[in-house]
Design brief:
By secondary structure, this protein is an all-alpha fold. It has helices at 11-23, 27-39, 46-58, 62-74, 81-93, 97-109, 116-128, 132-144, 151-165, 173-187, 194-206, 210-222, 229-241, 245-257, 264-276, 280-292, 299-311, 315-323, 334-346, 350-362, 369-381, 385-397, 407-414, 421-431.
Amino acid sequence: MEQVGSCLPDIVVYNTIIDSLCKDKKVKEASEIFSDMIEKGITPDVVTYSCMIHGVCNLGQWKEVKRLLSEMAGRNISPDAQTFNVLVDTLCKQGMLKQADEVLELMIQRGVEPDVVTYSTLMNGCCMLEKVDEARRVLELMNHRGLVPDVFTYSSLMKVYCLLGKVDEARRGKVDEARRVLYLMASQGCQPNVFSYSILNNGYGKSKRIEEALSSFRDIYQKGLIPNNVTYTTLIGGLCRVGRPLDALVFVDEMKAHGLTLDLVTCSTLLHGLCKSQHIDEALALFKMIEYSGLHSNIVLYNILIDGLCKAGKVDSANKLYLSLPAKGLQPDIYSYTTVINGFCKEGRLKEARELFKKIAENGCVPNNCTYNVMLQGFLENNETEKGIELLQVMVDGGFSAINCKKNLLANLLSNDRLNHSLKVVLQNCLGIT
């Protein structure tokens, strides 16, 4: 680093630059600045080392982490809570919970008191791995050491309960545990925020407990909080999940009335719900609104509507939408092709299905197992047995399986005299015949 006029860069300047480079994952450049400051006779401090450790942690360079810690000890620089917190955070994000626990023990051994950030980070790591008992243990440890959990700590615990609650019917009671954590927060003087309520609403929605989700949503206003896009999207998703997308539309109007801008996540959630419940006219109206709003649609949004149109028997409309993609600056993906091919096959339009199937490779896309199975099933359902056998051979040669094709069609094909021995073995495996 060069001297500017009569001003020499000091430790604060160096630390600021090193921190910025490490956050941008430019660790090599940060190391060069680190070496430069030592050459200039400026001794690094705990902040310098914390920044460097953060940088190498993000790159998973654990040997370098150990070297820097050893170098700190050699310079009689003791790591502080921030240094250790960086280590705990990185280890937790990489699922290395045991090692993060060891860092916590090391902190205490070295007389560095873990703070709320340390425990909250460790708890979030437990939650990421759905280790709810470990998360509760961390909460108890915090309380034992006289630390007051913050909203992030409690919300992390709520999140893991909600994740567990959506797994199956027997574990849905875990969402009730998340609600109890919410009440515990308030009783401890830590006011839940919109993020906390969004977690609870998401848990209720994914457990299909929509009335409780609606009640929790109303509580947000009663607490003087303002719902955000995430809050609305989780509620809209919950309503769609129980087949009530028309009720979800009401909340779109409410969002706009509160000055919130619809994003692609909200729009795709609602569009999928409308299409799945066969409310295709409402889905088309929503799609038009999205286009007029200036929101930059992606291929996922178009695929949802293409699929909805096909399932509603509007294959020509779906094909027209598919054909319009390049003009909108979008390229069809394999899901786009497979959906329209399936629509053509369902209507017995095999010629159009075959032509579109050929275009996949021409347009630089690669058919997947689902695409092949859709085309195979189309041939067999429309009595194009010979073409079905030809395609099956191509599938086998390419390492694909007919496992997703209807079993009765495969059973009928198995008795065909034109089938060679190797293809018969393939079909027997698909049908579970030994």
